[in-house]
Amino acid sequence: MNDFGVESGQDVRDVDVVVIGAGQAGLSAAYHLRRTGLAPDRDFVVLDHAPRPGGAWQFRWPSLTYGKVHGMHALPGMELTGADDSRPSSEVIGAYFTAYEERFDLRVHRPVEVSAVREGEGGRLLVETSEGTYATRALINATGTWDRPFWPRYQGQETFRGRQLHTANYPGPEEFAGQRVIVVGGGASGTQHLMEIAEVAAETTWVTRREPVYREGPFGEMQGRAAVAMVEERVRRGLPPQSVVSVTGLPLTDAIRSARERGVLDRNPMFDRITPTGVAWADGRTVDADVILWATGFRAAIDHLAPLRLREPGGGIRVEGTQALRDERVHLVGYGPSASTIGANRAGRAAVTEIRRLLERAPVATA
Question: What is the model's pTM?
Answer without folding.
Answer: 0.84
